[in-house]
């Protein structure tokens, strides 16, 4: 018998995909705690979603703040059954051109933040069960020139998620699922100002997703947990084939980058015409 939805936390939900995922969870009947490093954005999102929606300023790099969010939702909703690690940052360019604090920020938010959220959620879900959904990226499955450190942080998030899922099963814990959703480029604030950034070209080389398409994919994974879901599925297949033959895949990357640049230029021209 299905239990009714309980408490849910979404990180980085002050804007972009996270805000839409928080709305999805409210619609599915969860008591939602909207969190973001930008406390004001978290408050605005929560207020817009309804009077019962909670909010908190949470920096996912800080495990004390993450644990406090976990304890708060468990106390308010009685039980935590869903945790969405969505917070993420992207800075483009070759790793050697990035400042050390920029490289560190991406690794800490995207990888350590996912570790912190997952560990906090597991502690609350043991015995009662639950689902941890990690928003990763196609960049977690394949090389991404122009986004090397971002890709490293997302590969770390996938490696950690799948290894921890295996650890749960080895420990006989079957009531907790971990799912990773790996979207192609999404038209959110993360990409809005990158039409003129050649280092972001690969994000524009496949199917630039509307956030609603990713929300749909997440809804399906919430109904049926899966370790890895690439969105769209054909891009997942494409990057996995390229990974299986790395020399071939690396040779094909310049073509994909050139395609991404063409799409960027087209979109830039269109937005200039609109004024
Ligand atoms: N936009 C894309 O093309 C794309 C593609 C694949 C995956 N993703 C992933 O989707 C997720 C959501 O991205 P988005 O496109 O909505 O980006 P976004 O930049 O619009 O939103 C990211 C949110 O994370 C918050 N955040 C940043 N640092 C934080 C921290 N230390 N602690 C807590 N919150 C923090 C920001 O304040 C922001 O509200 C990210 O994990 C991103 O890597 C994005």
From TrEMBL:
UniProt keywords (A-Z) are:
NADP, Oxidoreductase
Keyword Electron transport present in the record's keywords: the answer is no
One term of GO molecular function: oxidoreductase activity
Q: Does the keyword Protein transport apply?
A: no
State the CDD domains in the record: SDR_c
Question: What protein family does this chain belong to?
Answer: Belongs to the short-chain dehydrogenases/reductases (SDR) family.
What is the protein name given in its UniProt record? Short-chain dehydrogenase
* Protein source organism: Streptomyces gougerotii
Give the taxonomic lineage as stored in the record: Bacteria, Bacillati, Actinomycetota, Actinomycetes, Kitasatosporales
